[in-house]
Amino acid sequence: MVRLARIGTGVALILLGMPMLVLPGPGILTIAAGLAVLSSEFTWARRLLDWMKKKFRGYFAGNAPTEPPDVSLTESDH
Q1: Which of 12, 47, 58, 60 is most buried, with most CB under 10 Å away?
Q2: Who wins on pLDDT, 39 or 72?
Q3: CA angle, 10 as apex, 67 and 13 as ends, to 5°?
Q4: Strand ranges (DSSP E) for the chain?
Q5: Distances in Å between the alpha carbon of 3 and those of 18, 40, 75?
Q6: Domain around 56
Q7: pLDDT per residue over 13-43, tens digit each?
Q8: Within a domain: 67
Q9: How many structural domains is the chain composed of?
Q10: Alpha-carbon distance 68 to 26, whole Å?
Q11: Residue 66 within any structural domain of the chain
Q12: DSSP sequence for 3-45
């Protein structure tokens, strides 16, 4: 039951953040929050969140990474 609540919350945050990318609102932060919630259940969400963190740190340092994250499913995913 708790796992379903986490997954539902994470998916809801991501879905709410998507329109905020073009509408007023903190879209990227909302999507990152959704990935943070989902990362407790799925390794692909953790990898994507880590990639986002690295990318935004790179922007502030002046060298953003250009390679997309490897979010392929492995046997360790739930």
Answers
A1: 47
A2: 39
A3: 85
A4: none
A5: 23, 9, 19
A6: 2-61
A7: 999 999 998 998 888 899 999 999 999 999 9
A8: no
A9: 1
A10: 22
A11: no
A12: HHHHHHHHHHHHHHHHHHTTSSS-HHHHHHHHHHHHTTT-HHH
